[in-house]
Design goal:
The structure holds two protein chains of two kinds.
Chain A: E1 2-9, H1 13-24, E2 29-32, E3 46-47, E4 57-58, H2 59-72, E5 76-78, E6 82-87, E7 93-97, E8 100-109, E9 113-115, E10 131-132, H3 135-138, E11 146-150, H4 154-163, E12 169-173, H5 183-190, E13 195-198, E14 201-208, E15 212-219, E16 225-229, E17 232-235, E18 239-241, E19 271-273, H6 285-305
Parallel strand pairs in A: 1-2, 1-8, 2-5, 8-19, 10-17, 11-12, 11-17, 12-13
Antiparallel strand pairs in A: 3-4, 6-7, 7-8, 9-18, 14-15, 15-16
Helix pairs in contact in A: 1-2, 1-6, 4-5
Chain B: E1 5-6, H1 12-17, E2 23-28, H2 33-48, E3 54-59, H3 65-69, E4 77-82, E5 85-91, H4 96-107
Parallel strand pairs in B: 1-3, 2-3
Antiparallel strand pairs in B: 2-4, 4-5
The chains are: A alpha/beta, B alpha/beta.
The complex binds flavin-adenine dinucleotide.
Flavin-adenine dinucleotide binds near residues 35, 112 and 283 of chain A.
Chain lengths: ~325, ~110
């Protein structure tokens, strides 16, 4: 079994920042990442609000820089999905991946969140055939078409704005009458001639033959339904926390986010949770990175207070 | 360690359709973050399946015909061809173990 000082589960902004701190602190550190390092931000076109990049930076490029910085100090990025996490008998933790087991004296879980699905008929059927969760990936396939974006937060507006580079028109379908998005994003969307809004409206069904051809929309106020011909449906309706590893181990809030203290400590000694997976007010890259740093420092204190001499090998 | 080779609209028929080996095509574009994330995994797979499966990639920006023909509207998309026929389609970035499973399914 491979042993680590600090195991970090999830290679998004929080995990990679924790890795920079942990490995720079000379702790044997590994980041487990089921996909590719970067997490949610790696799918974004331009990140405009991360300090230090006044011109903005491509999300994937930023993710690469974070990974390089972590590896520079000796952290390993292991491309494996962690399938279980449990406290070990004599302190520390056991992590299992599909490729083997690891022990770690402290663990930082930064598994982030995955996007929500609409859960309406036609959605699963048309994934990759007009239903998309990544405008930067798929926008170019919808040149001169009419598309809808579902959602009302910053991600929805950012992606709608991005789509207008390619498409003929974007309708933003939002179930409320006002947006959650930041003022600057709202201003941009309202002044973009290609963007229109369908307020108080939800998607009921997605239809087509070989690809998406129309959606059935329902107005929640009037109860009216109508068919809207569209070539694409882009879904940005928030995320669900990846809390599978924490279930039964630490306390979660009603939304499934881990409850931690100011040092990212959970109720289990040596186990920390950072980033979008924890209860917090702002789900942003900078705050995720900040959490990661805080958690790594707290993990370092924990290791210093609990030297390895007791771990039997 | 061979690089995963680029194919184009012009070479797709000879490199993929007429290839004796099963061939996995990674449809990608430079501006697509998840595509750039999947690339090193495809590279690893090409080493794992060396001699059994041929791995190529196609830039959808530069090659509009093949992606249109196969109705691709989302990248990354991986398609597995065998004997000139499409045997499997994987849309989006999946963990390596999932990809292996799908490749193995397409091989039987
Ligand atoms: C479209 C979009 C645009 C955004 N734009 C901005 C922006 O402009 N500015 C900004 O500040 N924020 C933005 N955000 C928010 C920002 O991306 C998130 O707040 C941030 O990525 C959270 O980082 P994280 O490390 O906590 O989690 P994530 O980025 O979600 O990373 C978690 C990682 O853990 C991995 N993982 C999960 N489970 C396991 C497991 N069991 N084993 C191994 N690995 C696992 C996942 O694959 C993932 O890579 C945007 C988000 C989206 C979706």
């Amino acid at each position: 079994m491979k042993t680590l000082d600090i195991a970090i589960i999830g290679g998004g902004g929080a995990g990679l920042t924790a890795a920079i701190y942990a490995s720079r602190g000379m702790r044997k550190t590994a980041v487990f990442e089921r996909l590719g390092a970067g997490g949610q931000i790696a799918t974004t076109d331009v990140v405009e609000n991360f300090p230090g990049f006044p011109e903005g930076i491509n999300g994937f490029d930023l993710a690469q820089l974070l990974q390089r910085q972590a590896e520079k100090f000796g952290a390993k990025v292991i491309q494996e999905s962690v399938t279980s996490l449990s406290p070990a008998e004599h302190g520390g933790f056991v992590l299992e991946t599909e490729a083997g087991a690891y022990t770690a004296r402290a663990v930082v879980v930064t598994a982030g969140a995955d996007y929500n699905h609409l859960g309406v008929p036609g959605e699963a059927e048309f994934v990759g055939k007009g239903v998309s969760y990544c405008a930067t990936c798929d926008g170019a396939f919808f040149k001169d078409q009419d598309v809808i974006v579902v959602g009302g937060g910053d991600a929805a507006l950012d992606e709608a704005e991005f789509l207008t580079r390619y498409v003929k028109s974007v309708r933003i379908v939002h179930r409320r009458h006002e947006l959650r998005a930041s003022a600057i994003n709202q201003q941009r969307a309202f002044s973009n001639p290609k963007i229109r809004f369908d307020w108080d409206t939800v998607v009921e069904r997605i239809e087509g033959s070989s690809s998406v051809e129309r959606v059935l929309l329902r107005n929640l106020v009037t109860g009216e339904t109508r068919e809207q011909p569209v070539g694409g449906v882009f879904v940005f309706i928030g995320q669900a926390p990846n809390n599978g590893l924490l279930n039964g181990l630490v306390a979660l809030d009603a939304g499934g986010h881990a409850i931690v203290d100011l040092e990212m400590k959970t109720s289990v000694p040596g186990l920390f949770v950072a980033g979008d997976l924890r209860t917090k007010a702002a789900r942003q890259l900078i705050s995720a990175c900040g959490d990661g740093a805080t958690a790594a420092i707290a993990a370092e204190h924990y290791l210093a207070a609990h030297p390895a001499n007791t771990s039997a090998k | 360690m061979a690089e995963v080779r680029e194919v184009t609209d012009a070479t797709f028929d000879s490199d993929v359709v007429k290839n004796d080996l099963p061939t996995l095509v990674d449809f990608w574009a430079p501006w697509c973050g998840p595509c750039r994330m999947v690339a090193p995994v495809v590279q690893e797979l090409s080493e794992d399946y060396a001699g059994k499966v041929n791995f190529v990639k196609m830039n959808t920006d530069e090659n509009p015909q093949v992606p249109t023909k196969f109705g691709i509207r989302s990248i990354p998309t991986l398609m597995i061809f065998r004997g000139g026929e499409l045997k499997g389609t994987i849309v989006g970035f999946r963990p390596k173990s999932d990809l292996k499973k799908r490749i193995d399914e397409a091989l039987v």
